[in-house]
Amino acid sequence: MAVSGHKKPPVKTLLPVYEGTVDSLPKGIEALVTVSDLQGRIMVDGKDILMGEVVPETLYNFMRSTYPDLNLDKVGVLLCGDLFAHLDQRGGLGDVRKVWQAFNWFFGWVAGVAGNHDSFGTEQEFEEFKKEANIHYLQAEIQSIKGLKIGGMSGVVGKSKKPNRIPEKTYTSQLKRIIEQRPDLILLHQGPNTAWNPYKGSFQIRKMVEQYASSLICFGHEQWPDLLNSLENGTQLLNLEGRVVILTTEK
C-alpha cells in the first residue's frame, strides 16, 4: 500500500491592515509599518508575482491619503519573514529580495528577519543584497537605525537540515544575548507560545522571553486570535502572521 503526500491548496484571502500607536519614536522616524507572512501571489498585467511586491505601493497610497502629515521617507518597515509562496501550493522556499526592495523603494528603510520559507538568491547575491542602501537584514544581532535599537533573529528553532532552522540551544543563547542588550524592539519569525491556548509558538522562546525580555517583540509564523498580548514581566507580543500593522505616535 502506497501513501502519497498531501499539499495544502492555495486559498483566497484578505490581508488585514491595522492601525496602532506607540508612546514615542526617535526623531528620525515618524511611523513604523510591521508585516509578516505575506504568503500569497497576485496576477498583475497577466504576470504572476509575490503579494509582497504589490503591498508596498498599496500601503504607500493608503498612508499618503490617511496620514497626510507624515513624511513617508521617515517611515520604517519591519519584516518578520515568510514572504514567499508558490502559485499552486502553500509554502515552499523562494527568493524574497524583490519584496524587501519594493518596501525599500516606497518607504525610508527596511529591517527584518528571514522566515523558514525565505531565501535571498545565491550566497554572493545575498551578500550584495545585505549591502544595499537602507536594507537591514538581522541575524542574531542588533542594529541602531535612525535612533531605534532593533534586535532580530532569523529562522526558526529546529534540528532539520531544511533552510533557516537553528538548533534550540543556539537559538535561545543568541536570543538571550540580544535581550540582554535591551533593544527597543525585537523581530523574530517564530514567536513564543503562551501558557493559555490557542496561542501557538515555541515553548523554548517563551521561557527565554518570560525570564529576560521586557520590550516589544514582533513575530509571525503562527497566527494568534489576538493581535497584541502582554506577559507578566511587561513584554508586549505583537503577532503579525498574515497582517500589516501601522504604528504611529500617540497624539
Characterization of the model:
Residues 1-6 have low confidence and may be disordered. With 251 residues, the chain is α/β, with parallel strands linked by helices. It has one domain: Purple Acid Phosphatase, chain A, domain 2 (4-Layer Sandwich). The protein has helices spanning 51-66, 97-106, 123-130, 168-180, 203-212, and strands at 17-22, 31-36, 41-44, 47-50, 75-79, 94-95, 109-112, 118-119, 135-137, 141-145, 148-153, 156-157, 165-166, 185-190, 216-220, 228-230, 236-239, 243-249. Helix 1 (51-66) packs parallel to helix 2 (97-106). Helices cover 23% and strands 30% of the residues. The chain has a 6-stranded mixed beta sheet, covered by helices on one side. The protein has a 6-stranded mixed beta sheet with strand order 10-11-14-15-17-16, covered by helices on one side. The protein is built from 5 helices and 18 strands.
Keywords:
251 residues; Purple Acid Phosphatase, chain A, domain 2; 5 helices; alpha/beta; six-stranded mixed sheet; disordered N terminus
Mean pLDDT: 91
Low-pLDDT segments:
1-6
Alpha carbon gap, first and last residue: 65 Å
User: What is the strand arrangement across the widest sheet?
Assistant: 1-18-2-5-7-9
Write the layout of secondary structure elements.
Layout: E1 17-22, E2 31-36, E3 41-44, E4 47-50, H1 51-66, E5 75-79, E6 94-95, H2 97-106, E7 109-112, E8 118-119, H3 123-130, E9 135-137, E10 141-145, E11 148-153, E12 156-157, E13 165-166, H4 168-180, E14 185-190, H5 203-212, E15 216-220, E16 228-230, E17 236-239, E18 243-249
Helix pairs in contact: 1-2, 4-5
